[in-house]
Records
---
Amino acid sequence: MTTGTVVVQEVIPSVLLLTAWLMPSLTGPTLPFGVRTPPARAHAPVIAEQRRAYRWLVGGVGGVLVAAGLALAFADPRTPLAGFTSIGVLVVSGIGYLRARRAILAVKQREDWYAGLRQAVVADTSLRTRPERFPWLWAVPSLVVLAVTAVAAVVRYPSMPDQLPMHYGDSGTVDRYAAKSVGSAFSPVFVQLAVTTLLLVVIWYAFRSRAELDPARPAASASQHRRYIVRMSAALLVLTACVDVTVLCAGWQIWDGDRSLAVLPVLAPAGAGMVAVVAVAIRTGRNGSRLPVPEGEDGTEPARTDAVHRDDDRYWRFGGVVYVNRQDPAIFVGKRFGIGWSLNFGNPRALLPIGVFLGFLLVMQLIGH
Amino acid sequence: MILSIDLSSDVPIYQQIRDRVVEAIAAGDLAEGSALPSTRQLAGDLGINFHTVNKAYDLLRQEGLLRLNRKSGAVVQRDPGSGPPPPGFTEEWSSRLRTLLAEAVAQGMDGTAVLEACGRVVGSFGTGADMAPGTGPGAGHGVGPDVKSGMGRGSQGEPA
């Protein structure tokens, strides 16, 4: 592996670490570590305390892990450390999250933060009757990459070697070949088709997912949601195109019959796409909470400061990361701690996306063999 | 329209949805022909059972305010400008109004204050045209919530 490869491999844990470190600031003031809190308690001492403890833990231990990984990778580039560093960063931030969450939940329960508060849910019907238009234009790049790959496969087919590499081992060298055929030569195109379809379906569902509006300022948060959903969808469509480029780069090397895979051009596009999504998520904030509200839209809000968002903690199980609500017809709901959406596992219709995903994995396996 | 449901309230959710839609029609936020989300969409947006929304929409349909359609979803069927109320409505409504006004009188509000409150509420709806959005925060069956432009248009508005 080259120095460039080492750097690229260390980019992933670094981005993970940065995202994990920033996460408490991304999720908004009323959802510290996935605990629903009334706005009046946003400045409770325990929350500030736990944020600080989390940042120290993740920044300290995670930073040491990434630095150690980088140093070791430079010292001996043969050790495949990137995966371990990423897992280490994830574990550390997971532990920090659970500790902070438990501490805040304990105080919330002891002091009964929701006593005497009116809990409300708010919907803006115009988000359904006059919905934002899906940013289809941003899907064009991925379709172009797909078309380019298909054309390249057709053009290069005659000059491809008789044996095409089908699988690369951990060290980046070929460990399985397949005879040249339409199935093996076009496998990058099939993978792109599967990935693009899957991501388009998921993005389309997420685009139509519910807007979580602030009962104290529903109109302003609805307007923020409109821009949030368009930007996040556009960012995810760009990521889709980047993943397709990654597959094209891998495909190109397969068509050359390369014995070892150059990791840099394969990982770089997908990595850049991830960085773009994280950057957009940081800029917009959860549900667009960081987007400015246009003049006038905030001023006409009816004063409803006595109503607070419902305490929905009980539907978020397993450390507050899995949403299970049988009464809720929603399929995708916004994550509480993290970027993007998760499924409502209480809704049988949520099995459809899971089925699509499992089907996708199965198809990938079949293509691989 | 902005639909706010108070989950701590004793008023059932389907009743709250029905009440807010009626108020939005009165205030001009929803006009004849305005679309409302499908039951499943609205239930998803509120995170509640879709039978609850179904019940509210069915009430509104029975009152002749909503037209339910398998294809186009829910459409508002009438507004203040759609002509006189259907036959029998006034009598039925008057009996409910009687109870509501009796509550105020029994609690010691004097007649003028009750009429003033009525005037403010009717005034806050406007006469079908432009009015500030988001009237009538859901304090039960809103008699006299704090409407800022109180005395604006005739304090003794049309009494019943």
Note: Residues 136 and 145 of chain B are 6 Å apart (CA to CA).
---
Amino acid sequence: MFLPKEGNNMRILRIFLLHVQHIFEYRSRSLIWFFISLLNPLMLLLFWKGAILQNNGAGTTLPYITSYYLLLVVAGAFLTAHVEEDVSEIDIHEGHLSQYLIRPFSYFWFKFFEEIPYRLLQGLYGVIVCAIFFSFFGQLFVFVTDPFQLFLCVIITLLAYFLSFYFKMVLGILAFWIQDIRGLYQVIEIVMLIFAGFLVPLELLPPAVSHLSFIMPFAYMIYFPVVSFQGKLPLDTMLHVIELQCLWLVLFVAIYQIMWRKGIQKFTAAGQ
Amino acid sequence: MRRYLRIYKMLLHLNFASLVAYRANFVNSLISSIAWAAFSLFSVILLTGRTPNVYGWSRNEIILLTGSYNIIVGIFHMVFSRNFQRFSTIVHYGRLDSILTKPLDSQFLLSFWLVAYTSVIRVCMGIAINIYILTAMGLQYSVLDIMFFILMMLLGIMLLYSLWLFVITLTIWFTRLSNLVDLLYTMNGVTRYPPKMVNEAGNFFSYILIPFTFVVAPPTRLLLQKALSGEIIGLAVLSISFFILSRLFFRYALKFYTSASN
């Protein structure tokens, strides 16, 4: 990966701290965003509760489903970067990109460290919800216990974040070529809802759909971090997941680099 | 009243003109309407794949609920949603003065300014789903039944409108919370589940969601010829009382509006 150079470390810290201040200024807004990400998984959880109780298990168990959707809340809040609309609308279409281009700093890493405080705060809300839930219904919770597995979970989660961030940046800079891109974003959001595991745990989908979801990159952004934290994945599967995540990541980094180089030549901004 | 109808006709014309003028925007809205309607159908098919019966609703009945959801929410998005989005932005930027000073009802101006024609496609998809399922179930209807269904649907839309107005009015005090609209979009999704699911959750937060469960389920139960009089009366009472309350609340809130001196 293209890590920032040594001397930039202080600047990274500054960008980070500036945006930490920003999110605390807007914490009530962040809380609403968190409620939004909480509502759908909770509805689905209630739906499954009824389905399991009235249909003899429906091929799964309540503890599995409960911990799946709760961890999904944390994963959704922590791992879904919402950077694409800023990049496409504000930076590329409105021309604010030129501000970044004249700074001695890579645009990508600027965006990266801008986003992290938001993800940390959202993730924190998620952890709090899980903790409250755990204190009430500990017996309904399945969680990884082995320390080495936990270590692998952390690796999978980090890779998932990089994967999701690179993917969203690629979507963002598509705006160099496509003028009005919101329709495409909506379609991708829907594809992600199904194939990243937001709707139903992927292994409970009909076999064909489930198979398709493991070929696509989205499962490696959300679903695998969730199930690995549940402690349901055997060690060799976890290592295999990490392998595939690395493959996807290399692919996305390459696509981003190529698109960025081509796109930046097309970019024009007036009167900034 | 006639004056307002004339103005709304004019607004319909203007919105149509801007629809035709901005083609890329039109294509994008069309794509997203179709995509969300398709998603609501796929998601319910995938969710009910292993479950013939949930909270007293069979698989077909839940798909019918999704069809009705697309009709009701489609109409709601066509007429109202974007106006509420505009409402919160207007308050956020302190531009409400220009609306309050106009010689028209400000609630009317805030609620009906924009029309999202592309949502029609979503309504059509909802109707298609319903016709398919009802034919498969072999149910028969008279004209009167259909009229009654439409009436119930209108009451559902009125209830949804009032709930949105209630929540969005809060932005007059909390101007930063313009993302309450996004919360409401998500809360709309609650209406496509069986009401019993929310009622039985027995949690403080789920009580807030109970009014939403009255929007789509009672009209759908009517289609299934299973509606209880309690549901129908409940919807009528809720929708009329919420409509009046939300209007009063909106007017009360306007007293606290502090403008950014336009």
Note: The two ends of chain B are 30 Å apart (CA to CA).
